[in-house]
User: What shape does this take?
Amino acid sequence: MMKFKSHMQILVALVMLLGFAGGIQGAQAQSSAVVVVRDLTYWDATYTGYVDANRFEEWPVVFTAAEDFTVTAAPDGGSLTTLVVLKDATGTEIARGDGALTSSQPAGNYFVQVQPVTGSGFYHFTIRRVEIEDPTDPQTPSASASANPVSIKVGETSTVSVSLNNLPAEGYASAEFSCTYEMNGVEVNAITFTDLFGADPATAVNGPAGGGFIAAVAGSNGRKATTTGVVFTFDVKGLQTGTTVITCVPRVSKGDNTLTTLDAVSVTLTVTDEVVVVENATLTGQVFAGKPVTVSLYDAANILVKTVVANPDGSFSLTAPAGTYTATAEASGFLAAEGPVTLVANETSVKAAVTLPAGDIDGNDVIDQFDAMTIGMNYNASQPASADLNNDGVINVLDLELLASNYRLTGPVVWP
Ligand SMILES: [Ca+2]
Ligand SMILES: [Ca+2]
Assistant: This one.
Protein backbone atom coordinates (compact mmCIF):
# COMPACT_ATOMS: atom_id res chain seq x y z
CA MET A 1 0.00 0.00 0.00
CA MET A 2 2.84 2.36 0.87
CA LYS A 3 4.72 1.69 -2.37
CA PHE A 4 1.50 2.31 -4.27
CA LYS A 5 0.97 5.59 -2.46
CA SER A 6 4.33 6.96 -3.62
CA HIS A 7 3.50 6.01 -7.20
CA MET A 8 0.17 7.76 -6.87
CA GLN A 9 1.90 10.86 -5.58
CA ILE A 10 3.94 11.05 -8.79
CA LEU A 11 0.90 10.32 -10.93
CA VAL A 12 -1.23 12.95 -9.24
CA ALA A 13 1.56 15.51 -9.60
CA LEU A 14 1.73 14.71 -13.32
CA VAL A 15 -2.03 14.96 -13.62
CA MET A 16 -1.95 18.39 -12.02
CA LEU A 17 0.77 19.60 -14.38
CA LEU A 18 -1.21 18.31 -17.36
CA GLY A 19 -4.29 19.94 -15.92
CA PHE A 20 -2.59 23.30 -15.67
CA ALA A 21 -1.25 22.92 -19.21
CA GLY A 22 -4.87 22.93 -20.34
CA GLY A 23 -7.30 20.06 -20.03
CA ILE A 24 -6.66 16.80 -18.29
CA GLN A 25 -6.86 13.97 -20.79
CA GLY A 26 -6.28 10.27 -20.50
CA ALA A 27 -5.03 10.19 -16.95
CA GLN A 28 -6.20 6.72 -16.03
CA ALA A 29 -6.72 5.78 -12.43
CA GLN A 30 -4.69 2.78 -11.43
CA SER A 31 -6.34 -0.61 -11.38
CA SER A 32 -4.98 -1.45 -7.93
CA ALA A 33 -7.52 0.87 -6.33
CA VAL A 34 -9.78 -0.57 -3.66
CA VAL A 35 -13.22 -1.37 -5.07
CA VAL A 36 -15.98 -0.61 -2.59
CA VAL A 37 -19.22 -2.49 -3.25
CA ARG A 38 -22.27 -0.29 -2.83
CA ASP A 39 -25.90 -1.21 -2.34
CA LEU A 40 -28.31 -0.30 -5.15
CA THR A 41 -31.99 -0.91 -4.64
CA TYR A 42 -34.22 1.26 -6.77
CA TRP A 43 -34.64 2.46 -10.32
CA ASP A 44 -34.63 6.24 -10.76
CA ALA A 45 -33.35 6.94 -7.24
CA THR A 46 -30.24 9.08 -6.82
CA TYR A 47 -27.40 7.68 -4.75
CA THR A 48 -24.29 9.52 -3.65
CA GLY A 49 -20.91 7.88 -4.02
CA TYR A 50 -17.29 8.86 -3.61
CA VAL A 51 -14.31 7.84 -5.73
CA ASP A 52 -10.68 8.77 -5.91
CA ALA A 53 -7.51 7.20 -7.30
CA ASN A 54 -7.45 4.73 -4.42
CA ARG A 55 -11.14 4.00 -4.23
CA PHE A 56 -13.46 2.80 -7.00
CA GLU A 57 -17.07 1.92 -6.33
CA GLU A 58 -19.11 -0.97 -7.67
CA TRP A 59 -22.93 -1.04 -7.80
CA PRO A 60 -24.53 -4.49 -8.14
CA VAL A 61 -27.52 -4.52 -10.48
CA VAL A 62 -30.00 -7.38 -10.80
CA PHE A 63 -32.34 -7.53 -13.81
CA THR A 64 -35.26 -9.93 -13.48
CA ALA A 65 -36.07 -9.29 -17.14
CA ALA A 66 -34.33 -7.83 -20.17
CA GLU A 67 -33.76 -4.11 -19.68
CA ASP A 68 -32.83 -1.06 -21.72
CA PHE A 69 -31.22 1.38 -19.33
CA THR A 70 -28.96 4.36 -18.81
CA VAL A 71 -26.49 4.53 -15.92
CA THR A 72 -25.21 7.95 -14.90
CA ALA A 73 -22.41 8.90 -12.49
CA ALA A 74 -22.58 12.70 -12.46
CA PRO A 75 -19.74 14.44 -10.59
CA ASP A 76 -20.86 16.74 -7.80
CA GLY A 77 -18.82 19.61 -9.19
CA GLY A 78 -15.09 19.90 -8.69
CA SER A 79 -12.30 18.20 -10.57
CA LEU A 80 -13.93 14.77 -10.81
CA THR A 81 -14.78 13.23 -14.16
CA THR A 82 -16.06 9.67 -14.07
CA LEU A 83 -15.77 6.50 -16.09
CA VAL A 84 -18.72 4.09 -15.92
CA VAL A 85 -17.95 0.42 -16.68
CA LEU A 86 -20.68 -2.23 -17.05
CA LYS A 87 -19.57 -5.76 -16.15
CA ASP A 88 -21.31 -9.11 -16.20
CA ALA A 89 -21.63 -11.42 -13.19
CA THR A 90 -18.11 -12.79 -13.77
CA GLY A 91 -16.57 -9.30 -13.86
CA THR A 92 -16.07 -9.26 -17.63
CA GLU A 93 -16.48 -5.80 -19.11
CA ILE A 94 -19.52 -5.34 -21.37
CA ALA A 95 -19.50 -1.61 -22.03
CA ARG A 96 -18.02 1.66 -20.78
CA GLY A 97 -18.74 5.34 -21.10
CA ASP A 98 -17.54 8.70 -19.81
CA GLY A 99 -19.95 9.78 -17.07
CA ALA A 100 -22.79 7.60 -18.36
CA LEU A 101 -23.62 4.65 -20.56
CA THR A 102 -26.73 3.26 -22.22
CA SER A 103 -27.12 -0.46 -22.83
CA SER A 104 -29.59 -3.31 -23.37
CA GLN A 105 -28.99 -6.49 -21.42
CA PRO A 106 -30.90 -9.71 -20.74
CA ALA A 107 -32.04 -10.66 -17.27
CA GLY A 108 -29.12 -11.40 -14.98
CA ASN A 109 -26.68 -10.03 -12.48
CA TYR A 110 -24.40 -7.15 -13.41
CA PHE A 111 -22.02 -4.69 -11.81
CA VAL A 112 -21.53 -1.05 -12.62
CA GLN A 113 -18.08 0.19 -11.64
CA VAL A 114 -17.50 3.90 -11.19
CA GLN A 115 -13.93 5.20 -11.20
CA PRO A 116 -12.32 8.59 -11.70
CA VAL A 117 -10.87 9.58 -15.06
CA THR A 118 -9.58 12.73 -13.43
CA GLY A 119 -9.81 14.15 -9.94
CA SER A 120 -11.69 12.78 -6.99
CA GLY A 121 -14.90 13.51 -5.17
CA PHE A 122 -18.55 12.79 -4.71
CA TYR A 123 -20.91 11.89 -7.54
CA HIS A 124 -24.61 11.18 -8.07
CA PHE A 125 -25.48 7.70 -9.30
CA THR A 126 -28.73 6.80 -11.05
CA ILE A 127 -30.01 3.96 -13.22
CA ARG A 128 -33.07 4.61 -15.39
CA ARG A 129 -35.01 2.60 -17.94
CA VAL A 130 -34.98 3.94 -21.49
CA GLU A 131 -36.66 2.95 -24.74
CA ILE A 132 -34.15 1.70 -27.30
CA GLU A 133 -35.72 1.15 -30.69
CA ASP A 134 -34.11 -1.61 -32.72
CA PRO A 135 -35.94 -2.05 -36.05
CA THR A 136 -33.84 -5.13 -36.88
CA ASP A 137 -35.08 -6.98 -33.80
CA PRO A 138 -38.01 -9.19 -34.78
CA GLN A 139 -39.25 -9.14 -31.17
CA THR A 140 -39.92 -12.87 -31.01
CA PRO A 141 -41.95 -13.88 -27.97
CA SER A 142 -39.75 -15.71 -25.48
CA ALA A 143 -39.39 -16.59 -21.84
CA SER A 144 -36.49 -15.93 -19.51
CA ALA A 145 -35.52 -16.88 -15.98
CA SER A 146 -33.08 -15.51 -13.47
CA ALA A 147 -31.99 -16.31 -9.93
CA ASN A 148 -31.12 -13.75 -7.30
CA PRO A 149 -28.60 -14.45 -5.97
CA VAL A 150 -27.08 -17.01 -8.34
CA SER A 151 -24.91 -18.47 -5.58
CA ILE A 152 -26.17 -19.45 -2.15
CA LYS A 153 -24.81 -21.36 0.80
CA VAL A 154 -26.41 -24.51 2.22
CA GLY A 155 -29.56 -23.44 4.07
CA GLU A 156 -29.89 -20.14 2.22
CA THR A 157 -32.61 -19.20 -0.26
CA SER A 158 -32.49 -17.71 -3.75
CA THR A 159 -35.49 -16.27 -5.55
CA VAL A 160 -36.03 -17.35 -9.17
CA SER A 161 -38.09 -15.12 -11.45
CA VAL A 162 -39.64 -16.43 -14.68
CA SER A 163 -40.65 -13.86 -17.28
CA LEU A 164 -42.38 -13.61 -20.64
CA ASN A 165 -40.80 -11.19 -23.11
CA ASN A 166 -41.87 -9.52 -26.38
CA LEU A 167 -45.50 -10.58 -26.12
CA PRO A 168 -47.62 -10.38 -29.29
CA ALA A 169 -49.88 -7.36 -29.61
CA GLU A 170 -53.00 -9.43 -28.94
CA GLY A 171 -51.45 -10.69 -25.70
CA TYR A 172 -51.60 -14.07 -23.99
CA ALA A 173 -54.69 -15.37 -22.19
CA SER A 174 -52.77 -17.99 -20.24
CA ALA A 175 -49.35 -19.58 -19.76
CA GLU A 176 -48.03 -22.81 -18.31
CA PHE A 177 -44.50 -23.53 -17.11
CA SER A 178 -43.31 -27.13 -16.56
CA CYS A 179 -40.21 -26.89 -14.43
CA THR A 180 -37.67 -29.52 -13.34
CA TYR A 181 -34.72 -29.42 -10.97
CA GLU A 182 -32.29 -31.68 -9.12
CA MET A 183 -34.39 -32.59 -6.08
CA ASN A 184 -31.46 -33.64 -3.84
CA GLY A 185 -29.64 -30.34 -4.18
CA VAL A 186 -32.43 -27.87 -3.63
CA GLU A 187 -35.96 -27.47 -2.32
CA VAL A 188 -38.58 -25.36 -4.13
CA ASN A 189 -41.37 -23.49 -2.40
CA ALA A 190 -43.34 -20.22 -2.26
CA ILE A 191 -44.48 -20.22 -5.92
CA THR A 192 -46.01 -16.76 -6.29
CA PHE A 193 -47.72 -15.25 -9.32
CA THR A 194 -47.54 -11.59 -10.32
CA ASP A 195 -50.34 -9.57 -11.91
CA LEU A 196 -48.79 -9.78 -15.41
CA PHE A 197 -52.06 -11.44 -16.51
CA GLY A 198 -54.07 -8.70 -14.84
CA ALA A 199 -55.41 -8.36 -11.33
CA ASP A 200 -56.76 -11.44 -9.57
CA PRO A 201 -55.65 -14.10 -12.08
CA ALA A 202 -56.70 -17.75 -11.83
CA THR A 203 -53.70 -19.91 -10.98
CA ALA A 204 -52.95 -23.61 -10.64
CA VAL A 205 -49.83 -25.29 -9.24
CA ASN A 206 -48.98 -28.99 -9.50
CA GLY A 207 -46.21 -30.00 -7.08
CA PRO A 208 -43.45 -29.35 -6.27
CA ALA A 209 -42.86 -33.10 -6.08
CA GLY A 210 -40.24 -35.47 -7.45
CA GLY A 211 -38.01 -32.71 -8.68
CA GLY A 212 -40.60 -30.86 -10.70
CA PHE A 213 -43.65 -28.65 -10.65
CA ILE A 214 -46.08 -27.05 -13.06
CA ALA A 215 -47.20 -23.45 -12.61
CA ALA A 216 -50.18 -22.27 -14.68
CA VAL A 217 -51.86 -18.88 -14.80
CA ALA A 218 -54.81 -17.47 -16.75
CA GLY A 219 -56.10 -13.91 -16.82
CA SER A 220 -59.52 -13.67 -15.18
CA ASN A 221 -62.59 -12.23 -16.91
CA GLY A 222 -60.87 -11.80 -20.26
CA ARG A 223 -57.75 -10.10 -18.92
CA LYS A 224 -54.53 -10.86 -20.81
CA ALA A 225 -50.81 -10.42 -20.44
CA THR A 226 -49.64 -7.88 -23.01
CA THR A 227 -46.30 -6.60 -21.74
CA THR A 228 -42.92 -8.08 -20.95
CA GLY A 229 -42.63 -8.96 -17.29
CA VAL A 230 -42.28 -11.50 -14.52
CA VAL A 231 -45.04 -14.15 -14.53
CA PHE A 232 -44.14 -15.87 -11.27
CA THR A 233 -41.37 -16.30 -8.75
CA PHE A 234 -40.36 -19.14 -6.47
CA ASP A 235 -37.87 -19.70 -3.70
CA VAL A 236 -35.06 -22.23 -4.00
CA LYS A 237 -33.39 -23.38 -0.81
CA GLY A 238 -29.93 -24.97 -1.02
CA LEU A 239 -29.84 -28.42 0.62
CA GLN A 240 -26.37 -29.63 -0.38
CA THR A 241 -23.36 -28.29 -2.20
CA GLY A 242 -23.24 -28.48 -5.96
CA THR A 243 -24.65 -26.91 -9.08
CA THR A 244 -28.37 -27.18 -9.79
CA VAL A 245 -29.98 -26.40 -13.13
CA ILE A 246 -33.64 -25.43 -12.98
CA THR A 247 -35.35 -25.67 -16.38
CA CYS A 248 -38.83 -24.50 -17.29
CA VAL A 249 -40.68 -25.25 -20.54
CA PRO A 250 -43.25 -22.53 -21.27
CA ARG A 251 -46.46 -23.04 -23.22
CA VAL A 252 -48.68 -20.08 -23.99
CA SER A 253 -52.20 -19.50 -25.31
CA LYS A 254 -53.65 -16.44 -27.05
CA GLY A 255 -57.12 -17.53 -25.97
CA ASP A 256 -57.76 -19.52 -29.18
CA ASN A 257 -57.65 -22.95 -27.52
CA THR A 258 -54.14 -23.56 -28.91
CA LEU A 259 -51.00 -24.05 -26.85
CA THR A 260 -47.70 -22.85 -28.34
CA THR A 261 -44.44 -24.07 -26.86
CA LEU A 262 -41.71 -21.44 -26.41
CA ASP A 263 -38.01 -22.22 -26.02
CA ALA A 264 -37.15 -23.70 -22.63
CA VAL A 265 -35.42 -21.42 -20.14
CA SER A 266 -33.03 -22.42 -17.38
CA VAL A 267 -31.11 -20.93 -14.52
CA THR A 268 -28.02 -22.35 -12.89
CA LEU A 269 -27.75 -22.07 -9.15
CA THR A 270 -24.58 -22.79 -7.21
CA VAL A 271 -24.87 -24.04 -3.65
CA THR A 272 -21.67 -23.68 -1.64
CA ASP A 273 -20.56 -24.86 1.79
CA GLU A 274 -21.90 -22.95 4.68
CA VAL A 275 -19.22 -20.50 5.74
CA VAL A 276 -19.89 -18.77 8.99
CA VAL A 277 -18.16 -15.41 9.23
CA VAL A 278 -18.48 -14.38 12.82
CA GLU A 279 -18.37 -10.62 13.18
CA ASN A 280 -18.00 -10.72 16.92
CA ALA A 281 -15.44 -7.97 17.50
CA THR A 282 -16.19 -4.25 17.63
CA LEU A 283 -14.03 -1.22 16.88
CA THR A 284 -15.06 2.23 18.03
CA GLY A 285 -13.37 5.61 18.03
CA GLN A 286 -13.67 9.21 16.94
CA VAL A 287 -12.10 11.02 13.99
CA PHE A 288 -12.23 14.81 13.73
CA ALA A 289 -12.19 16.43 10.30
CA GLY A 290 -15.12 18.83 9.92
CA LYS A 291 -16.07 16.79 6.84
CA PRO A 292 -17.68 13.36 6.35
CA VAL A 293 -15.13 10.74 7.42
CA THR A 294 -14.94 7.20 6.05
CA VAL A 295 -13.33 4.58 8.29
CA SER A 296 -12.13 1.38 6.63
CA LEU A 297 -10.57 -1.88 7.83
CA TYR A 298 -8.08 -3.76 5.63
CA ASP A 299 -6.85 -7.27 6.35
CA ALA A 300 -3.24 -8.47 6.16
CA ALA A 301 -3.60 -8.95 2.39
CA ASN A 302 -4.80 -5.34 2.10
CA ILE A 303 -8.32 -6.47 1.20
CA LEU A 304 -11.09 -4.14 2.35
CA VAL A 305 -13.06 -5.93 5.05
CA LYS A 306 -15.35 -3.21 6.32
CA THR A 307 -16.07 0.43 5.66
CA VAL A 308 -18.36 2.83 7.51
CA VAL A 309 -19.13 6.53 7.33
CA ALA A 310 -18.56 8.11 10.74
CA ASN A 311 -21.32 10.05 12.49
CA PRO A 312 -21.35 13.85 12.09
CA ASP A 313 -19.45 14.17 15.40
CA GLY A 314 -16.76 11.83 14.06
CA SER A 315 -17.65 8.87 16.24
CA PHE A 316 -17.90 5.49 14.59
CA SER A 317 -18.52 1.84 15.41
CA LEU A 318 -18.01 -1.19 13.20
CA THR A 319 -17.97 -4.94 13.64
CA ALA A 320 -15.66 -7.49 12.03
CA PRO A 321 -14.28 -10.95 12.70
CA ALA A 322 -11.51 -11.08 15.33
CA GLY A 323 -8.11 -10.50 13.73
CA THR A 324 -5.35 -8.06 12.87
CA TYR A 325 -6.14 -5.19 10.54
CA THR A 326 -5.03 -1.81 9.28
CA ALA A 327 -7.57 0.95 9.90
CA THR A 328 -7.77 4.08 7.75
CA ALA A 329 -9.77 7.26 8.21
CA GLU A 330 -10.31 9.49 5.18
CA ALA A 331 -12.08 12.77 4.46
CA SER A 332 -12.17 14.83 1.28
CA GLY A 333 -9.44 17.52 1.44
CA PHE A 334 -7.77 16.06 4.51
CA LEU A 335 -4.74 13.87 5.04
CA ALA A 336 -5.76 10.33 5.92
CA ALA A 337 -4.91 8.57 9.18
CA GLU A 338 -3.72 4.99 9.24
CA GLY A 339 -2.87 2.59 12.04
CA PRO A 340 -2.93 -1.03 13.20
CA VAL A 341 -5.93 -2.64 14.87
CA THR A 342 -6.16 -5.92 16.72
CA LEU A 343 -9.72 -7.09 17.27
CA VAL A 344 -10.48 -9.69 19.94
CA ALA A 345 -13.59 -11.86 19.81
CA ASN A 346 -16.50 -10.54 21.88
CA GLU A 347 -14.56 -7.44 22.86
CA THR A 348 -14.74 -3.79 21.88
CA SER A 349 -11.49 -2.14 20.90
CA VAL A 350 -11.33 1.65 21.19
CA LYS A 351 -9.08 3.45 18.72
CA ALA A 352 -7.46 6.67 19.96
CA ALA A 353 -9.22 9.83 18.85
CA VAL A 354 -7.43 11.38 15.88
CA THR A 355 -7.68 14.68 14.03
CA LEU A 356 -7.17 14.64 10.27
CA PRO A 357 -5.03 17.59 9.11
CA ALA A 358 -6.88 19.81 6.63
CA GLY A 359 -5.32 20.85 3.35
CA ASP A 360 -4.59 17.87 1.09
CA ILE A 361 -7.13 19.02 -1.47
CA ASP A 362 -5.76 16.92 -4.34
CA GLY A 363 -5.46 13.82 -2.17
CA ASN A 364 -1.78 13.07 -2.90
CA ASP A 365 -0.75 12.76 0.76
CA VAL A 366 1.14 16.02 1.00
CA ILE A 367 -0.12 19.52 1.85
CA ASP A 368 1.69 22.03 -0.37
CA GLN A 369 1.37 24.85 -2.89
CA PHE A 370 -0.49 22.61 -5.38
CA ASP A 371 -3.33 22.42 -2.85
CA ALA A 372 -3.19 26.18 -2.30
CA MET A 373 -3.42 26.71 -6.07
CA THR A 374 -6.75 24.89 -6.09
CA ILE A 375 -8.04 27.40 -3.55
CA GLY A 376 -6.72 30.22 -5.72
CA MET A 377 -8.30 28.89 -8.91
CA ASN A 378 -11.68 28.43 -7.23
CA TYR A 379 -11.64 31.46 -4.97
CA ASN A 380 -15.09 32.52 -3.69
CA ALA A 381 -16.61 29.44 -5.39
CA SER A 382 -18.13 26.47 -3.55
CA GLN A 383 -16.58 23.70 -5.65
CA PRO A 384 -14.55 21.53 -5.56
CA ALA A 385 -15.94 20.57 -2.18
CA SER A 386 -12.53 19.18 -1.23
CA ALA A 387 -11.15 22.76 -1.22
CA ASP A 388 -13.81 24.02 1.20
CA LEU A 389 -11.81 22.85 4.17
CA ASN A 390 -13.90 24.51 6.89
CA ASN A 391 -17.09 23.30 5.21
CA ASP A 392 -18.79 26.72 5.19
CA GLY A 393 -19.78 26.56 1.51
CA VAL A 394 -17.22 29.04 0.17
CA ILE A 395 -13.57 28.63 -0.79
CA ASN A 396 -11.57 31.54 0.58
CA VAL A 397 -8.77 32.64 2.88
CA LEU A 398 -10.26 30.83 5.87
CA ASP A 399 -9.63 27.57 4.02
CA LEU A 400 -6.14 28.78 3.08
CA GLU A 401 -5.56 29.51 6.77
CA LEU A 402 -6.45 25.92 7.70
CA LEU A 403 -4.20 24.61 4.93
CA ALA A 404 -1.35 26.87 6.04
CA SER A 405 -1.53 25.60 9.60
CA ASN A 406 -0.68 22.12 8.28
CA TYR A 407 1.73 23.26 5.55
CA ARG A 408 4.23 20.60 4.36
CA LEU A 409 2.61 17.88 6.46
CA THR A 410 2.55 14.51 4.75
CA GLY A 411 0.19 11.61 5.22
CA PRO A 412 -1.12 9.29 6.15
CA VAL A 413 -0.74 10.45 9.71
CA VAL A 414 -0.14 7.82 12.35
CA TRP A 415 -3.33 6.59 14.01
CA PRO A 416 -2.18 5.02 17.25
CA1 LIG B 1 -1.80 17.69 -1.82
CA1 LIG C 1 -14.58 27.49 3.35
In short: Residues 2-129 form a domain with the Jelly Rolls fold (CATH 2.60.120.380).
